[in-house]
Write a structure and sequence with these properties.
Length: about 160
């Protein structure tokens, strides 16, 4: 696949995801390196949706450790069960947080981030090995449509583990 995305700008969010998914699959299909794939996936999501921050954290012992991302400098390590990322890991489910200030224990890596989605990435044993984290500096931009398609993207990542 060429290193360029073809997504129409004036279409719905769902239509953007529907156009993006096969391109992401083609992007990672020929590349065996996980870090390279995560880097390209975070770049693609950031480019298409212009989110404040999008990236990955990977489980190492009892922490999530920062992986490839796009956006401003981020928290490097997050403990199990802490913040939105650590809670999604602990609960082994996706979390949509429309207002991070209302989330008990939120870790504020940036005061500009006001809403967040975290989706766990699981291996063949259904063990959480990482998370996809998306932050927006706007309210009401992240929703269940994003959760659905980000879960599909995390399933794509899981097939590459």
């Amino acid at each position: 696949m060429a290193e360029e995305l073809f997504i129409e700008k004036e279409v719905s969010k769902k239509e953007k995801y529907e156009a993006l998914l096969p391109q992401l699959k083609a992007l990672v299909d020929g590349e065996p390196d996980l870090i390279a794939n995560l880097a390209n996936l975070s770049a693609a999501l950031h480019e298409v949706f212009a989110w404040w921050w999008v990236g990955f954290y990977w489980v190492k012992a009892d922490e999530l450790v920062l992986g490839p991302f796009q956006g401003p400098i981020a928290c490097t390590r997050i403990r199990f069960g802490k913040g939105v990322c650590g809670t999604a890991w602990k609960e082994q489910k996706s979390l949509l947080v429309p207002d991070v200030n209302a989330f008990a224990g939120h870790i504020a890596c940036s005061s500009s981030s006001v809403s967040e989605i975290v989706v766990p990435i699981v291996d063949v044993h259904q063990t959480v090995v990482g998370v996809l984290d998306v932050d927006s500096e706007k309210y009401d931009t992240l929703d269940e449509t994003d959760v659905h398609y980000l879960e599909l993207i995390c399933e794509l990542i899981s097939t590459k583990l």
